[in-house]
Amino acid sequence: MKLKIYVSLSILIASLSFAQVKKTERPAFNQELATSLGADQYGMKAYTIVMLTTGTTKIEDKAKMGELMKGHMSNIGKLADEGKIVVAGPFLEKNKENYRGMFIFNTKSKEEAEAWVKTDPAVQAGVFSYEIFPWYGSAALPLYLKHHQEIAKENP
User: Fold this and answer.
1) What's the CATH number of domain 34-151, 1.20.1050.10, 1.20.120.10, 3.30.70.1060, 1.25.10.10?
2) Rounded to an integer, what distance in angstroms lies between the CA atom of residue 33 and that of residue 135?
3) pLDDT band at residue 27 under the 50/70/90 scheme
């Protein structure tokens, strides 16, 4: 009985060890993909992060605010479809900086990112303001968007 347990445990440990080794194998470098994504030798590239902050305009009319938020979401979708925005989303908790959400734009130009964020109706209305930061991240970041469509049952 003990021998069976030891043999079973040995097989289990060997299987887990093999699975762990297999999991950490590095995939083959894909030059074509790296080039198409604008990756440097580390697989990274420059982006621009825009942190949306609480703006100076307070809108009490729920219908008007709803329309602005609908336009905000529509604009995010348009920018994503155009390949300009690769990440967008709200923060789930209040914070001392009054950050409300963020965009990661597919540009290293702060001026271009500013022009894109200014197309947001909620920014135009003053509901949101923004801060802009250069950022360095994985060049593969835009690839997640196509998979997001596969896992989202509804759009907000």
Assistant:
1) 3.30.70.1060
2) 21
3) confident
